[in-house]
């Protein structure tokens, strides 16, 4: 699922790249970089969960899910910030 969302996001960025200003791209890149870092943390947490069992595994998987949700919220915030920049232009 995460791969599908990433591919969809990349396709959207490519489609919009032609009409974005440098400032919009800067805002978008900042949020996207932060979201990517969060996704990496979630991946690491999931790898850790694979080496655990029982309640510890569930806790690690829940933490990974929470981080993934934060990454998605960051991407959505980035889109809103980018739209705000676009409206100012």
Shape: elongated
The amount of helix comes to over 70%
Strand content: under 5%
Helix-strand category: mainly alpha
Topology pattern, helix = H, strand = E: HHH
Calculate Rg over CA atoms: 16 Å
The total number of structural domains is 1
Q: How many H/I helical runs?
A: 3
Please count the beta strands (DSSP E, at least 2 residues each): 0
Low-confidence region ranges:
none
Mean pLDDT: 82
Question: Would you write up a description of this structure?
Answer:
- By secondary structure, the chain is an all-alpha fold.
- The chain has three helices and no strands.
- It has one domain.
- The protein has helices at 2-17, 22-50, 54-88.
- Helix 2 (22-50) runs antiparallel to helix 3 (54-88).
- The relative contact order is 0.16.
- The mean pLDDT is 82.
- Keywords: Signal.
- It comes from Sphingobium cyanobacteriorum.
- Residues 55-66 have a biased composition (Low complexity).
Q: Keywords for this structure?
A:
signal, mainly alpha, Lipoprotein, 3 helices, 89 residues, elongated
List strands and helices in order, with pairings.
Elements: H1 2-17, H2 22-50, H3 54-88
Protein name: Lipoprotein
Biased composition (Low complexity): 55-66
Keywords: Signal
At a glance:
Residues 55-66 have a biased composition (Low complexity). The protein is built from three helices and no strands.
């Amino acid at each position: 699922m995460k791969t599908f969302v990433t591919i969809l996001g990349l396709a959207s960025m490519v489609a919009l790249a032609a009409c974005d200003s440098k400032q919009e791209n800067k805002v978008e890149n900042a949020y996207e970089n932060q979201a990517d870092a969060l996704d990496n943390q979630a991946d690491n947490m999931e790898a850790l969960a694979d080496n655990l069992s029982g309640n510890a595994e569930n806790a690690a998987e829940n933490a990974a899910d929470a981080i993934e949700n934060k990454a998605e919220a960051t991407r959505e915030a980035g889109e809103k910030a980018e739209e705000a920049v676009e409206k100012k232009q």
